[in-house]
Amino acid sequence: MKKFLKILLGVFVLIFALLLIIPFAFKGKILEIAQNEINKNLNAKVEFADLRLSLIRNFPNLSASLIDLSVVGVDDFENDTLVAFKAFRTVIDIKSVISGDNIQVRSILLDEPRVKARILPDGRANWDIMITPEDVDDPGVPVEPDDIDEPEPEADDAEPAAFQVHLRNFGIRDGRVEYDDAPFEVRTTLEGLNLEMKGDLTRDLTSLDISASSDIFNFWFDGIRYIGNSRLSLVTLLDADLNDWRFTFRENEIKLNALEMGMEGFFAMPPGEGFDMDIDFFSRKTDFKTLLSLVPAIFMSDFEDLEATGSLTLEGFVRGVMKDEIMPSVGIDLLVENAGFSYPDLPESLDKMNMNLSLFYDGIDEDRTTVDLHSFHMEMAGNPFDMRMNIRTPVSDMHVDASFTGIIDFTSFADVIPLEDVMIRGLLESDLFMAGNMSDLENERYEEFNAGGSMRLTAFQYSDSGFPMGVSIPGALLEFSPRFVELSAFEMQIGRSDIRMNGRLENFIPFMFNDGTVSGNLTLASTMLDLNEFLTGEPDEAVADTVPLSIVEVPGNIDFVLSSSIDNILFEDMEISQLRGSISVRDSRVVMEGVNMNMLEGSVGMTGEYNTRDMNRPFIDFSLDINDFDIPSSFHTFNTVRQLTPIAKDLRGSFSTSMKMNALLDDEMMPVMNSIDAEGRLLTSNVELVSSTTFERLSRALSLREDRENFPGDIDISFTISQGRVHLEPFEVGMGPVNMIIAGDQGIDQTMDYLVKMTIPRSEFGEGANQL
User: Fold this and answer.
1) Which residues contact 710 (CB under 8 A, 6 or more apart)?
2) Radius of gyration of the chain (CA)
3) What 8-state DSSP symbol labels residue 24?
4) In the structure, what pLDDT confidence band is assigned to residue 161 with cuts at 50, 70 and 90?
């Protein structure tokens, strides 16, 4: 018996050893196949740290995991990580591994995936990385008709693919997905994404059981965030026709925070036909509180304690084909009746809320799109506010009929909604109406467009934990007419900065509703603009901790002329005073005309532009007239001076220059050194050479007297800058009785190439002169 037990134990040990050892026998083979398949099929940089195999985890099948897998784009998407995983785990049929004919994958788990999907404005997508037969053809070799071979008939015993997918389970654990569609101006993010899909994908007709959830869901359209930091979950049972790629919703539930929705219909992906869908959606719950959960300030503040009344009806559809320029049509109907809410611990409430909203988007003929806010009424802390709006024919000639009437007391917000670390006060009074076609405004037929009224903001204040310095607007008034909007009595205080503006804005209504170009002439005045507060977020925070600047896109539909008068500006360690001049914002450019200011113990006049028409190649183009700038201050303030003229650190005195300059800007809004193209004339005054390694070595080589003068005197230099080098025309400079004529160039790579002709009196040589 003991012998039998020993034999049995030995067999178990042997089997267990084999289960540990066998995977390593196939590791090289699977790794080779995986690398070959990836390189053959993807136009991207694919890397992974390790391949781990196990027969124990999913016995009798083989578990394979690619650790720290990443897929990085190339060409226009270089360094753009399309997808990365902590681990890509699969379960593989062990028999298929042993036979080696084709590897059959049974299940896939994506552990902590990070996905970033982008579509550029020209329609190219960063996930389009599959290599097609056309990609491997040589486009540089012409093909003659006689050289074209007739296609050979496919063999019945064609070689199967190295991998075959026989999935029954697919999962995602703790994922993050970002989708950015530039042509349609849509962006969405999902964080904390978990998904499990079960079903037999080896069958043509099957059922898929899917459950998914995301801790944080955001959705932007046209730059506006419509859903912010919401919870999203989905449970659905789909009938799948994998021959035609058609999925029919059988049982499902979607939750967005507390709002529960149901769906009916189908979604299909017919080959070469884009996407086809016919989906109806509807709210499963009819209480108003579920809709309130979509408001971040409410959902994040004791939502369970919220007392709400009123009913909700929400339904809609998505119907049609998505292909090329064609989009599916979308309809939404929202009805809220006799609604209101209050918190037990707060003194005020929102009451008598009624809303009737219908939206329709026509995916084939966008001009048939309509927005109908038939009615909206609410009373917050006893103050009524009413709104209605009708928009139609948005493409051919948008028609707008809208009104906004009532009072919003911002001070009562804190009495209605818990606002943690937020202070808001002020009063907004609105009595505004408009009705007519945009073409009447664009063609200056103002008598055909009915518009009038005003919006007044009084004693407005706001601050929060992320914006502690806050903003204060003592008063602002907008008065509307068909021709223009008059801005008067606008004052604003942000931290130490104050701004006062008044003027007239034309084409304001088309700008608000139809992306028209708003134009205007405004007067801007300020006694102090402390820009460091905006960079740090804290007035007293050290400038060294500031966030790097980034390129700011100038809107293309703004045409403003700002007559500016600013007494003091603080930017990093620069102090600017008495800025005066005209600043125009138009056509994605900021144009300065006759702008003058005092800085660095001197003054500067500036004419030129900051241009962002092409955000891939933003640039500046300026003419500068600088008078009496302090040389040490310029060296420590401007990175350009430090890189192009490093000798300035050894000089004391002042300089003046007239210069024309243009340059591309990098991502931190700094000039790209190799792109600077400039020419000008440099004049110095009372310059002293404090210390210079170059001149000290020259003095030692020539055995010059150590008590020589270090005052070069006044210098007049003509220069050009191109391809990262400063080129100096020959100029004459004297240091006491020593005269020099200097010419040459130097670059940002710290190289120099100068020719110096010196005239030195014998009396300037030291004791070593005879030996020299």
Assistant:
1) 688, 689, 690, 735
2) 36
3) H
4) very low
Residue 378 parent element (H or E): strand 370-380
User: Running DSSP on this structure, what letter comes out for residue 631?
Assistant: H
Spacing of C-alpha 619 from chain mean position? 20
Q: Quick check: 620 and 662 in contact, CB under 8 A?
A: yes
Tokens of 364: 């084939």
Query: Could you tell me the CA-to-CA distances from 272 to 131, 309, 323, 440 in Å, in that order?
Result: 18, 49, 9, 44
| Nearest one of 386, 380, 332, 336 to 356, comparing CA atoms | 336
Closest CA to 196 of 104, 279, 107, 92: 107
* Distance between CA atoms of residues 588 and 610, nearest Å: 9
Residue type, 729: E
| Amino acid sitting at position 563 | S
Contact (CB, 8 A) for 348 and 412: yes
pLDDT of residue 18: 40
Tokens linked to 358: 């219908």
Tell me the three state secondary structure of residue 146. Answer: helix
> 431, 432, 428: which is closest to 400 by C-alpha?
432
DSSP letters, 54-122, are ESSTTTTSEEEEEEEEEEE--GGGTT-EEEEEEEEEEEE-HHHHHH-S-EEEEEEEEES-EEEEEE-TT
Do residues 637 and 601 make contact, with C-beta atoms less than 8 angstroms apart?
Answer: no
Which phi and psi (to 5°) does residue 60 adopt?
Answer: -95, 10
Q: How far apart are CA 61 and CA 26, in angstroms?
A: 13
| Structure tokens belonging to residue 736 | 């006491």
What phi and psi, each to the nearest 5 degrees, are found at residue 424? -140, 135
Given pLDDT bands bounded at 50, 70 and 90, which one contains residue 459? very high
**What are φ and ψ of residue 261, in 5° steps?**
-125, 155
d(CA 596, CA 581): 6
Evaluate if residue 422 carries a pLDDT over 70: yes
**Number of other CB atoms surrounding residue 25 within 10 Å:** 11
* Residue-wise DSSP of 178-243: EEEETTTTEEEEEEEEEEEEE--TTSSEEEEEEEEEEEEEEEEETTEEEEEEEEEEEEEEEEEETT
| Mean pLDDT of the chain, nearest integer | 79
Q: What is the DSSP string of 672-698?
A: -GGG-EEEEEEEEEEEEE---HHHHHH
- Tokens encoding 571: 């930017």
Find out whether 717 and 728 touch, Cβ atoms under 8 Å.
yes
What is the rounded distance in angstroms from the CA atom of residue 359 to the CA atom of residue 221? 15
The Cβ-side half-sphere exposure at 521, using a 13 Å CA radius, reads 1
pTM of the model: 0.68
User: Tokens representing 766?
Assistant: 């030291």
Q: How many CB atoms lie within 10 A of CB 505?
A: 21
DSSP label at 447? G
